[in-house]
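Narrative of activities, Objective 1.

The group set out to show that a structural description can be obtained from nothing but a protein's sequence at a throughput compatible with the screening campaign. Below is one input-output pair from the validation batch, recorded exactly as produced.
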Amino acid sequence: MMVLKINGEDKEFAGVLPATMKELLGVLKVDEATVVAEIDGQIIRKDNFGGTKLTAGQKIELIRLVGGG
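Output recorded for this entry:
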């Protein structure tokens, strides 16, 4: 099993790990327009989600932006 630590919790992926941040957000059903992503302490720009490769063991923080008042 491949594992990523997402928001402090281990998330296991049977078989194939999502290749990019964009793929991971699709698997998690998270709208990339409403999230800030950080991998191993580095903030990833939204326009780099498709080119940001993922590897097992990385620590990912996803912060969802919510509108309101």
